[in-house]
């Protein structure tokens, strides 16, 4: 029987916590120009691109935990420099360092959580990635709101940056407790260590022999041997050469980038400026922004808990349809407010922005990162997920760099781009997004036209048994004759 222990849950929660505690540079206490704000966001995500790409190679060679450790150390260095910055230039340099760390952690979390979670609970456990990104936003916004009242001193912006260092220190300490991915260990021939971790992950008092963990080890070993044989034939560029892997890469990129093409990060990163454009004061804008991200965080947790019950495909389709629909209405109300700036239109626009982030939180955010990681085989999972997340950071750079200028020139019309992209992603998912929930990682190959190694071995054994039975029957007939 498939089982999981609280060790699974605690390990995942710890690794995911605080993924986006990075403070919002648009908050009033920074007092920076749109140019500096744009650079701070752009450099952060541009560096994240390189951090994400580096993760595939490092985690495949050295392990998932080593990436956690490296990302934590880099994050600590960047956070300290950010906190101690004495000029905009120094702060921007630190943003490059923290952005690189973000890219690494952002890739390895869904890869690692997917690899330690059992199939029927992978949605909720790996979905914690999206949930705790929003916990980070939640904490950053409330810290920003509190520090606004100290905006006359450097504490108003230094303290939010110092929190990054605290989280990175906690994550670094935790890497000496949380387990390495058993799939990575098996790929390096360390099966005894992998089995001990599987015992801890799937401990069940009703299964004293740990039969599920032992069977999972066999399945993992068979699939990894098959993957490594295929990798020798496909070479270094197997992810791009073979059609089955190209399909998975495109799907992972469409799911991951699609979450950002909804416009969610533009709203999150520029919420203080957006709310002030609706007539709110600086403190009111920060308070509404904190409430917005609290609402988003709660929606994410709700979404993660239904991921395995209703399936990733259904939830993502509902999400992109509802999210885009809410954004259509919100954009229309923002347009109306630009013509008739009354509290009625501002209030309605805010209401639909809250509905918009609710749809994103329940139906998109917890599930997109799960799919982006689980569609790849073990030997390509870090590389493929790294590429998908790298493209996410490029999309973030594009949308965030354009946002300040767009707000001043075309205003609400900028959001029409995200509405159009939401429609494109919905159509793509309708035709090409398979259902992955409930399947073991090794069995997802079937969705892309490949027979899992365990099933292939069973088929071979059945053929051999059938052939042996025929021979025995023939021999018996000869004896009787």
Automatic annotation (TrEMBL):
| Basic and acidic residues bias locations | 455-473
Annotated signal sequence range: none
Please tell me whether the keyword Transcription is annotated for this protein: no
Gene Ontology cellular-component annotations: membrane
Location of the Major facilitator superfamily (MFS) profile domain: 1-437
Q: Region annotation Disordered: residue ranges?
A: 455-481
Matching InterPro entries: MFS_dom (IPR020846), MFS_sugar_transport-like (IPR005828), MFS_Sugar_Transporters (IPR050360), MFS_trans_sf (IPR036259), Sugar/inositol_transpt (IPR003663), Sugar_transporter_CS (IPR005829)
The annotated topology with respect to the bilayer is: Multi-pass membrane protein
Similarity remark: Belongs to the major facilitator superfamily. Sugar transporter (TC 2.A.1.1) family.
The record's section on NCBIfam families has: SP
Name of the protein in question: Major facilitator superfamily (MFS) profile domain-containing protein
**Whose protein is this, by species?**
Exophiala mesophila (Black yeast-like fungus)
């Amino acid at each position: 029987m498939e089982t999981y222990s609280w060790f699974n849950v605690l390990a995942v929660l710890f690794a995911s916590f605080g993924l986006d505690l990075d403070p919002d540079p648009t908050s009033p206490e920074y007092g920076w120009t749109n140019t500096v704000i744009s650079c701070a966001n752009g450099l952060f995500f541009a560096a994240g691109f390189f951090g994400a790409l580096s993760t595939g190679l490092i985690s495949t060679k050295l392990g998932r935990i080593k990436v956690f450790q490296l990302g934590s150390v880099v994050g600590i260095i960047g956070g300290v420099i950010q906190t101690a910055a004495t000029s905009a230039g120094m702060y921007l340099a630190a943003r490059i360092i923290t952005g690189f760390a973000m890219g690494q952690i952002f890739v390895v979390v869904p890869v690692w959580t997917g690899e330690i979670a059992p199939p029927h609970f992978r949605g909720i456990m790996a979905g914690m990635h999206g949930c705790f990104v929003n916990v980070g936003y939640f904490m950053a916004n409330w810290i920003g709101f509190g520090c606004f009242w100290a905006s006359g001193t450097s504490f108003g912006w230094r303290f939010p940056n110092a929190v990054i260092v605290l989280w990175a220190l906690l994550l670094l300490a935790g890497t000496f407790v949380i387990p390495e991915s058993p799939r990575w260990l098996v790929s390096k021939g360390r099966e005894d260590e992998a089995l001990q971790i599987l015992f801890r992950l799937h401990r069940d008092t009703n299964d004293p022999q740990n039969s599920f963990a032992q069977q999972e080890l066999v399945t993992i070993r068979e699939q990894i041997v098959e993957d490594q044989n295929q990798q020798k034939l496909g070479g270094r560029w197997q992810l791009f050469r073979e059609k089955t892997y190209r399909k998975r890469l495109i799907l992972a990129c469409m799911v991951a980038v699609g979450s950002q093409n909804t416009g969610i990060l533009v709203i999150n990163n520029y919420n203080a400026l957006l709310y002030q454009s609706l007539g709110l004061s600086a403190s009111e804008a920060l308070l509404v922004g904190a409430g917005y991200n609290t609402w988003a965080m709660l929606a994410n947790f709700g979404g993660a808990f239904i991921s395995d019950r209703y399936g990733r495909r259904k939830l993502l389709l509902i999400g992109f349809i509802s999210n885009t629909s809410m954004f259509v209405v919100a954009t229309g109300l923002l347009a109306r407010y630009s013509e008739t700036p009354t509290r009625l239109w501002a209030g309605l626009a805010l209401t639909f922005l809250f509905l918009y982030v609710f749809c994103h939180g329940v139906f998109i955010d917890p599930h997109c990162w799960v799919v982006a990681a689980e569609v790849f085989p073990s030997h390509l999972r870090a590389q493929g997920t790294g590429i998908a997340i790298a493209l996410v950071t490029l999309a973030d750079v594009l949308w965030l760099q354009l946002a300040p200028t767009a707000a001043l020139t075309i205003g609400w019309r900028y959001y029409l781009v995200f509405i159009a992209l939401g429609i494109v992603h919905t159509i793509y998912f309708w035709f090409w997004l398979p259902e992955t929930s409930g399947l073991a990682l090794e069995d997802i190959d079937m969705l892309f036209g490949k027979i899992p190694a365990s099933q292939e071995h069973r088929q071979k054994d059945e053929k051999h048994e059938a052939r042996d039975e025929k021979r025995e029957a023939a021999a018996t007939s000869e004896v009787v004759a």
